[in-house]
């Protein structure tokens, strides 16, 4: 009986000692850079500056018509209507640089002569959603071309 209790106590001491061991983990410097970037982004209230193309500003009926035309012409770009009193504005795409937005504007043709590039802040999640829409359309095009 005494031997089993001593054996039990010794076993418990060894097991507690193994839980107390700590090993140093080496972290890649890039992970720290990403974490600091993430924390800075969170502090900025999760907003990102993007460039969009404004196609129209006016009444609701015309804005709906311009929106549906833009969605048919450019399905790979996110387009939406924003109400900014007293006008409804149709905006297209989210570009990370003004040069990208201007280049796309140049390819749009004469139908959108009055369109122009503007800068605005959007949530990071909206930007990611736009990127996912673009990737889905590219994947479906490559899938269609294979078959």
How does this structure look, described?
It is a single chain. This protein is an alpha+beta fold and 147 residues long. It has 5 helices and 4 strands; from the N terminus they run H-H-E-H-E-E-H-E-H. It has helices spanning 2-19, 29-43, 60-73, 98-107, 124-146; strands at 47-58, 79-84, 87-95, 116-123. Strands 2-3-1-4 form a 4-stranded antiparallel beta sheet. A hairpin with a 2-residue loop joins strand 2 and strand 3. It starts with a helix and ends with a helix.
At a glance:
This protein has helices spanning about 1-20, 30-45, 60-75, 100-105, 125-145, and strands at about 45-60, 80-85, 85-95, 115-125. The protein is an alpha+beta fold and about 150 residues long. About 15% of the residues are buried.
Summarize this structure as a short list of keywords or feature phrases.
alpha+beta; 4 strands; 147 residues; disordered C terminus; 5 helices
Rounded to an integer in angstroms, the radius of gyration calculated over CA atoms is: 28 Å
- Please report the total strand number as a whole number: 4
- SSE string: HHEHEEHEH
- The span between the termini is 78 Å
The helix content is 40-55%
User: Count the helices. How many?
Assistant: 5
Strand line-up across the major sheet: 2-3-1-4
Low-pLDDT residue intervals, each spanning 5 or more residues:
141-147
Largest sheet properties? 4 strands, antiparallel
Mean pLDDT: 79
Cα shape: elongated
């Amino acid at each position: 009986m005494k031997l089993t209790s001593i054996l039990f106590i010794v076993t418990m001491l060894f097991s507690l000692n193994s839980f107390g061991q700590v090993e140093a983990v080496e972290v890649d410097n890039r992970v720290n850079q990403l974490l600091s970037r993430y924390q800075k982004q969170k502090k900025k209230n999760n907003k990102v500056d993007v460039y969009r193309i404004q196609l129209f500003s006016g009444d609701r009926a015309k804005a709906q018509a311009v929106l549906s035309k833009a969605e048919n012409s450019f399905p790979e770009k996110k387009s939406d209507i924003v109400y900014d009193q007293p006008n409804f504005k149709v905006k297209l795409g989210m570009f990370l640089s003004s040069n990208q937005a201007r280049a796309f504007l140049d390819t749009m043709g004469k139908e959108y002569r009055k369109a122009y590039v503007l800068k605005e802040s959007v949530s990071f999640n909206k930007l990611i959603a736009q990127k996912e829409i673009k990737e889905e359309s590219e994947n479906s095009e490559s899938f269609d071309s294979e078959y």
